[in-house]
C-alpha cells in the first residue's frame, strides 16, 4: 500500500473536520445503529478479511476469527452505551435563591465529543486494536470522527477494513468523512500536528508512544494523547500455592507466555515463586509449535532482548526456545529463564524491560512479606498484576500484595491470567506509566469513551438553546441527575448520620 500523499491527507482531514459538527449533534440511536451496521458489515466480510490477516500477520485463523468477533462485539457494546446515555453524565442544578453560599443560578452540564480523533493502529491485534478496534469504536461512540493511521504490518487488511466500516457508517446515516484512513509514518505525524485533530490514541512501543505524546503536547494548541505502551504483567505465586503443586500452573503459565508467540501486551513477563519451588515448564514449553512473529522489526527486537536476558550473569535458561527464519519470516518457540530477586535488582537494566515475544523470567523470592515492596521497586506501571493462590487460602495473607499491585496497575487478577481481556463494561485496560501515557483511562470497556469527551456547562440558558440532553423534555431520553432547590441546607447530614451509626445504609 502506497503512503498517503499530502493531497490525499488534506482531503481526509478536511472531511473529518466537516463531519464533526453533524456527528456530534447526531441522536444516540442514529449513532448506535451505525455502530451495529459497521459490526454487521465486518461479520459479513469475515471470510474475506481473515485470510488477508493470516497472510499479512502470520496469526492463526482461529485466533483471528475470535479477534474479529471481539471487535464486532465491542462495536455493539458501545452501541448499547450510546443508547443508554449515562456516559453523557448529565447534571442539572436548579436555580436556588436560598443556596447556602448565596443565590445559585440554574446550571446544566454534560459531556461533548472532542472532535476528530487520530488513531494509531497496533500491529499485534489487526482487528481489535487496529482500524475498527477499541479506540475507533470509543471515539465514534463519543461522536467524534476517526482518522486511522494504518499500521504498516497489515496494510491490505487495513485498507479493506476501513472501506467496509466507512461505507457502513455512511449508509446508516452518519456524515461522509466520519471514518478515514491514512498510510505512512509521515502522514501520521503530519496529521498529529494538524489543528483539525482534537485528540489521538496509540497502541505500540514505549519509545514510539512517548515520541508521539511529546508531539501532541508541544503543538501550539496541545491535545489529549492516550497511548498504551509497555507492560510486563508480573505474576506472584504464594507459598501455599507452590506447596499445592505447580504442574497445572506451569502449563497455564507457558500458555500465557506463548499464545500468539507472546506478542500480547498482557503476556505474563515475570513469575515470582518461592525459592527452590519445582516449576516444570520445560516440557510444556517444548511442546509449543513454532509461531511466526508479526514482522521483521518485532523479530529483530525479540532476538536482541532474548540474547541480552539469557547472557546476563545469574540467569539460567530453563526452556531454551528458538528463533528461526524462512521465506515467510521469523518463527519463535517459548523461552523461559530463571533468576532470583538479588540478580533482578543487580541487573535490572538488562532484565526488566518488556520482551515482546514468547519469553518470560521466573524469579525466586525468599519471603512472601517482601512481595509488596518488590512490586513498588520493580514494577511502577503495568496493565496487570496477578496473584496465584492455593484453594481455600486465607485472603488476609495477600491483601497487602493486592494493594501494591492495585497501586501500580489497572487490573488485579487472582487465580487467572492476564491474557484474554474481557470486553465488558467494568474492564480496565490501562495503568500508570509506562503501561500508558496521557492520563488515567482504559482502551477496553465502556469507560474508554470518556477519553474522547469534555464537559460543557450552560448557565441560565433558555430552553431554546439547550442541547437535547439538557432540556427538561429530554428528547434523547438520557439519564439526568438533578439537584433541586433547597438541598444544600441538608448537605453533610447523611455523612453525619453514617458516622453516628458506624457505617452507611444497609
Summary keywords:
Aldehyde Dehydrogenase, Chain A, domain 2; 2 domains; alpha/beta; 17 helices; seven-stranded mixed β-sheet
What does it look like?
38% of the residues lie in helices and 19% in strands. The protein has helices spanning 6-25, 28-44, 46-57, 61-84, 134-142, 155-171, 185-193, 206-217, 239-243, 247-258, 282-286, 296-310, 341-346, 348-351, 371-378, 399-408, 493-501, and strands at 90-93, 107-113, 117-120, 146-149, 179-182, 199-203, 225-228, 235-237, 270-274, 291-292, 316-319, 322-326, 329-333, 335-340, 359-365, 382-388, 409-414, 436-437, 453-459, 480-483. The protein is α/β, with parallel strands linked by helices and 506 residues long. The mean pLDDT is 95. Helix 8 (206-217) links the parallel strand 6 (199-203) and strand 7. It is built from 17 helices and 20 strands. The protein folds into 2 domains: 6-229 and 441-454, Aldehyde Dehydrogenase, Chain A, domain 1; 235-425, Aldehyde Dehydrogenase, Chain A, domain 2 (3-Layer(aba) Sandwich). Strands 11-14-15-9-8-16-17 form a 7-stranded mixed sheet, with helices on both faces. Strands 5-4-3-6-7-18 form a 6-stranded mixed sheet, with helices on both faces. A 4-stranded mixed sheet has the order 19-2-1-20, with no helix packed on it. Helix 2 (28-44) runs antiparallel to helix 4. Keywords: Oxidoreductase. This is Aldehyde dehydrogenase (NADP(+)). It holds the Pfam family Aldedh. GO terms for molecular function: oxidoreductase activity, acting on the aldehyde or oxo group of donors, NAD or NADP as acceptor. Residues 461-506 are annotated as: Disordered.
Amino acid at each position: 500500500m502506497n503512503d498517503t500523499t499530502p493531497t490525499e491527507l488534506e482531503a481526509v482531514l478536511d472531511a473529518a473536520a466537516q463531519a464533526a459538527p453533524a456527528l456530534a449533534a447526531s441522536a444516540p440511536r442514529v449513532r448506535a445503529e451505525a455502530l451495529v451496521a459497521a459490526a454487521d458489515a465486518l461479520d459479513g466480510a469475515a471470510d474475506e478479511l481473515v485470510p488477508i490477516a493470516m497472510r499479512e500477520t502470520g496469526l492463526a485463523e482461529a485466533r483471528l476469527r475470535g479477534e474479529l468477533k471481539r471487535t464486532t462485539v465491542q462495536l455493539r457494546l458501545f452501541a448499547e452505551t450510546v443508547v443508554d446515555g449515562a456516559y453523557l453524565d448529565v447534571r442539572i442544578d436548579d436555580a436556588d435563591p436560598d443556596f447556602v453560599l448565596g443565590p445559585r443560578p440554574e446550571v446544566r452540564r454534560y459531556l461533548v465529543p472532542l472532535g476528530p480523533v487520530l488513531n494509531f493502529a497496533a500491529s499485534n491485534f489487526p482487528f481489535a486494536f487496529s482500524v475498527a478496534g477499541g479506540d475507533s469504536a470509543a471515539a465514534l461512540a463519543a461522536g467524534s470522527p476517526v482518522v486511522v493511521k494504518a499500521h504498516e504490518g497489515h496494510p491490505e487488511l487495513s485498507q479493506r477494513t476501513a472501506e467496509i466500516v466507512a461505507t457502513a457508517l455512511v449508509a446508516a446515516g452518519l456524515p461522509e468523512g466520519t471514518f478515514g484512513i491514512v498510510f505512512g509514518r509521515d502522514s501520521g505525524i503530519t496529521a498529529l500536528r494538524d489543528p483539525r485533530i482534537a485528540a489521538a490514541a496509540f497502541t505500540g512501543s514505549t519509545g514510539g508512544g512517548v515520541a508521539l505524546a511529546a508531539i501532541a503536547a508541544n503543538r501550539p494548541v496541545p491535545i489529549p494523547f492516550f497511548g498504551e505502551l509497555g507492560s510486563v504483567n508480573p505474576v506472584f505465586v504464594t507459598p501455599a500455592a507452590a506447596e499445592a503443586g505447580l504442574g497445572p500452573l506451569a502449563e497455564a503459565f507457558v500458555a500465557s507466555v506463548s499464545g500468539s508467540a507472546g506478542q500480547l501486551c498482557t503476556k505474563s513477563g515475570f513469575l515470582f515463586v518461592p525459592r527452590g519451588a519445582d516449576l516444570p515448564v520445560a516440557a510444556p514449553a517444548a511442546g509449543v509449535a513454532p509461531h511466526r512473529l508479526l514482522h521483521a522489526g518485532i523479530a529483530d527486537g525479540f532476538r536482541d532482548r532474548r540474547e541480552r536476558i539469557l547472557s546476563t550473569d545469574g540467569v539460567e535458561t530453563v526452556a531454551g526456545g528458538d528463533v528461526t527464519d524462512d521465506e515467510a519470516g521469523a518463527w519463535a518457540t517459548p523461552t523461559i529463564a530463571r533468576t532470583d530477586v538479588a540478580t533482578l535488582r543487580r541487573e535490572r537494566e538488562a532484565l526488566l524491560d518488556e520482551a515482546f515475544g514468547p519469553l518470560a523470567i521466573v524469579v525466586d523470592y525468599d519471603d512472601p512479606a517482601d512481595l509488596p515492596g518488590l512490586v513498588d521497586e520493580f514494577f511502577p506501571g503495568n496493565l496487570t498484576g496477578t496473584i496465584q493462590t492455593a484453594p481455600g487460602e486465607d485472603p488476609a495473607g495477600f491483601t497487602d500484595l493486592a494493594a501494591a499491585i492495585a497501586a501500580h496497575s489497572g487490573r488485579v487478577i487472582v487465580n487467572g491470567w492476564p491474557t484474554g481481556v474481557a470486553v465488558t463494561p467494568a474492564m480496565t485496560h490501562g495503568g500508570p506509566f509506562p503501561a500508558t501515557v496521557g492520563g488515567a483511562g482504559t482502551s477496553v470497556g465502556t469507560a474508554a469513551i470518556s477519553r474522547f469527551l469534555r464537559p460543557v456547562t450552560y448557565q441560565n440558558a433558555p430552553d431554546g438553546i439547550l442541547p437535547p440532553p439538557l432540556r427538561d423534555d429530554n428528547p434523547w431520553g438520557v439519564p439526568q441527575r438533578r439537584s433541586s432547590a433547597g438541598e444544600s441546607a441538608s448537605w453533610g447530614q447523611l455523612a453525619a448520620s453514617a458516622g453516628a451509626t458506624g457505617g452507611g445504609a444497609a
